[in-house]
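Batch manifest, entry 17 of 40.
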Amino acid sequence: CAVEPRIANPRLLLKTRVPWAGRSEDKTDDRVWAVTCFVTRTGFRRRGVSRALARAAVDFARQRGARALEGYPMLTKPGQEVTWGELHVGSRSIFAAAGFAEVSRPTLRRVVMRIDFGG
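Output type: structure tokens
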């Protein structure tokens, strides 16, 4: 859906946005990229497509010179029904499988995850 420098998404740069809770860093660093959503067509869900997209997002950002890549997945409660639109941002397990590490938990249901490439 969207894998691009974080500054390309003006909504992410607002100081009131969830990703910034408890963090202080240069929001305008164009070498920090973000993957903000995954879109999987009905009929292809629950087949590992989002995991493959997350891995591809890592490769895509790294090859284009990103210093880091962030994601902002939702946390789900075991056994609790999830509405179709809640996980368009991905789940924690999808990002973890692609090598992302948890940076913060700004709310009860949101986690910031990041993979640093160095440089």
